[in-house]
């Protein structure tokens, strides 16, 4: 091999002598080991050789906004891709802020992939619209297809799943999470052929209909590599026990309902089955839980790192007893039925905890609400010093509490606090919650994601702009006093990628202060703020490489831009925009 | 670095968005609820009946729930704001019914207790006890005997007496194997077996 082979680069007519120490094949081999897409982007910018080597060796492409690029551009640049991750709608579509039929249809992507990526193996979609026809097309077009993951998607029914089960002979993963799916029947599961054995991941936890249990049992028995099994609520405890006997090797388990009455003998058998599950790292499900059966789980909890109890309405004592058996817990999701006492138990029992999410059991206050307060959060912060990710829904908070919490846990990377009553001040001092978030951004220098709530003035945003130098995602609702707030954020957060704002008094001056910034961001969402159509038109005119889209509500003043979605794109304006989306 | 741009046109309405000091709710701001410190900026969900004229008055209109209609009046009652709190729809099950377990009726849970060799039976209210040690101590007291140490492997070690119970299926089970709550819901009667009878149970 010639160590100092000089290469001529004939870029744009110029001949530049470049010393290249590696032949292309070696460079490609080396680059194949670079997995992170951020690193690969950097690699591709070094020089043309590296750009070429990178694009030929890229096997996985991640597209954070499906409208930022076209499928044709993607396949032209990366000819050898086997795995695609695509995200579609803006995140606020999860909360019904985006009308149906907005777009993000996978169809046009699949058509192009069908022609150019015959070897496609994996498709992971988030917030995309997927029809049954698309799923059938997918199942029939890619003979090596292995993994399908659909998160928060809509537009398909169980017929589409049946097509996948019937035709994808090499399927290893079918992960149907939290989608808006038309669940016609559970018969899709019976479509897996009897000689099909490759499944490693099966998640149908949020489907409603009964599947044929015997078919499921046979499937689980013959798929010896099954690693992840998450069943829906209709699977009873007795059926679960039978599944566990077939698959003691499971690393991740999502149970069905934990409620059906067991005889004492059945209980003992269940406990014995859990005793055999030595590899369990992740446990979820437990919907409709009868706490008396929880001890059956205890033997399987020793190695748990992630426990998702967000479907289980547990009381504080029940949680406390369970946590004693989970010494290695790193991630925990609970409902606020556990209350502050339950959170104290978390603080006492989970020293390795890194992530805590507390969801509201009664967000619309239909019953008598208790939930969690600032005390529970403080208790966790004293006991769990490694905490770096929190999502916390509560009805009261104080500035002092948050200051204590971040002092105990300065390593927060994700801090998402939702005080559920909009514009609620510190309930003890009656002051705005500005100082709370000041403490967060000042103390937590590694902060990447922040969601604010409570009564907030522009001061909060001044602090964010001044201190949150690593912030990438910011979510704001019912906050701020004037344009100045948003201007501080846009001017001060160099790494900002996603900004989503609703119901804030930010107008055109704020919007337009971020002119150049938006090209370095993935997207901006502003709904029910004070932005007008003219402001949006101005932005669109000045920045042609941004797509500025407005959705208007019926009956509102024509000059108001009710919902604004701004994102950078190399694909130009959308060609599939529905009538209610105006591209300016 | 801000570019110098001229924001042409009156429609940009920059006065409305100019820098101001002070909390939201101070003068000059768009319509607010009467509450001094808490500003409500709620938009009702589409299926709540609403007053169209109140909505068109301002950007972030406040709409009370069906009935009142006028955004200027008292703070809205719990009108639902679209998409708030930010919970995804699959999580919106109402758990509050599940959360508090329904308490059983006030009546006690009396079961017969027999002891081998004793002339008559006794009755105990299982609800009075909170755990196995509680119950066993009471039985020891009642019948003047001692029970050995319980272990999952060995059963009761160290005495000739072994506590057993008849469950709903009619089987005689060793007291202590299943969780307490499960035990009291399935226990029909208790029997304290003695010595020669215990055979396999007490000394596995």
Give the gist of this structure.
The complex is a heterodimer of chains A (584) and B (204). Chain A is α/β, with parallel strands linked by helices.
Helix content of chain A: 25-40%
Label the structural class of chain B. alpha+beta
Query: Which bin fits the share of residues in helices of chain B?
Result: 10-25%
Mean pLDDT of chain A: 92
Q: Determine the N-to-C terminus distance of chain A.
A: 56 Å
Largest β sheet strand count, sense and barrel closure of chain B: 5 strands, mixed
The major sheet of chain A is characterized as: 21 strands, mixed
Mean pLDDT of chain B: 65
Globally, the shape of chain B reads elongated
Number of DSSP helical runs of chain B: 4
Write down the secondary-structure element order of chain B: HHEEHEEEEHE
If you compute it from the alpha carbons, what radius of gyration of chain B comes out, rounded to the nearest whole angstrom?
A: 35 Å
Q: Structural class of the helix and strand makeup of chain A?
A: alpha/beta
Spatial extent as radius of gyration of chain A: 26 Å
Largest interface by residue count?
A: A-B, 83 and 68 residues
Unreliable sequence segments of chain A: 1-15
Oligomer: heterodimer
Spatial order of strands in the largest sheet of chain B: 2-1-7-5-6
Number of helices of chain A: 19
Number of strands of chain A: 25
Q: Which regions of chain B have little confidence, pLDDT < 50, spanning 5+ residues?
A: 1-10, 26-77, 96-106
